Amino acid sequence: MSVPPKFSAELIDAPDFSFVDAAGRSLPALPEVEAIRESHAEIARLVRAEIDAQSASLEAKAQAAIDYAEATASKMLAAMGSLKPKVIGIKVNDKPAVMLKGQRRPHLMLADILGRIAAGFDNIALTGPRGSGKTTLCEQVAEALDNRPFGCMVLTEGMFRSDIYGQMSEAGQWVSSPFWDMMDKPGVFLLDEGDAGCKNTWLNFNSVLSNKTMFNPKLGTWKKRHPDFIILCCMNTTGRGGTVEYSARSALDQSTLDRFHMRRVDYDRELEAELCPFPEVLAKIHAGRDRLLQAKSKETLGMRSVQTAATMLRAGYSEADTLSQLVEGWDDNAKRIAAIV
């Protein structure tokens, strides 16, 4: 980018203050005329000096603005060049593409899960470590399936049957549960933290999972499940009891597990690279995660750790402070295994 032409100005000399007689001969200049001539010369000198000074200042400011613009543009182009094209639409078979909300990047497993649903699997259990994006994946499945309604219920040992079926209010009005309300319509429903629910809780779902019908003991009525009502379940374990990392998880009845098509969801490192554009720190997190997994440690560095790191680094925290925060509260052995600080 070139610098604009120099600012310039030109003063036109005033007429010579002299007089001539009838014969054209010069007459001596009057003292007043000489004084005017000297004043004009001084004024012209001062004006030229001011113009030259302002011209230099404007040129310097213009060049500084150009340099700043070029530097900013270079940084933006470099950042844009490091980004991969984002797929924000999902196309299933011959149906029109569905755009993901907020132009989010599709989860690494989205195409796989959609393919299994298209094959006929309508009860799918997603297993994998915390922070691997299972819940986000379920939401994207609903969006990709013609933006079907999405519902969610967290299973716990202390949940009530009314959480599943609904209940009568004190005023005598029926208040339906999200699951009972949605199951006879097209939709996607997530039974989250499935391995935190007890066996008795799961028995309420066995019929709708296999026979496609559900009896509501509160209403005394049956309801048929819609063919396009997809049931997803997220678990940190495979439903066969607690592990070192997830010690409080339940062992589910085999009759329940048999009703699900199991798929493991692991960390999406490409997505993590977009969430945390600090490659050196991200590499340390990934290396620490691998060491923890190999040692079967109860601690892990998941996607939420990646998001925390990105937030802190953008806010100006140092790399040392950021990595220390990720292992805050860990015992010394887990910190030694991760070895990120």
Please summarize what this structure is.
A hairpin with a 4-residue loop joins β10 and β11 (221-224). Helices cover 43% and strands 14% of the residues. By secondary structure, the chain is an alpha/beta fold.
**Residue share in helices?**
40-55%
Helical/strand content category: alpha/beta
Number of helices: 13
User: Which blocks of ≥5 consecutive residues have pLDDT under 50?
Assistant: 6-21, 81-85
What form results from the Cα inertia axes? elongated
Backbone CA Rg:
37 Å
- Could you describe the largest sheet, including whether it forms a barrel? 5 strands, parallel
What's the number of extended β-strand segments? 13
Describe this structure in words.
The protein is α/β, with parallel strands linked by helices and 341 residues long. Helix content is 43%, strand content 14%. It contains 13 helices and 13 strands. Strand 3 and strand 4 form a beta hairpin. Helix 11 runs antiparallel to helix 12.
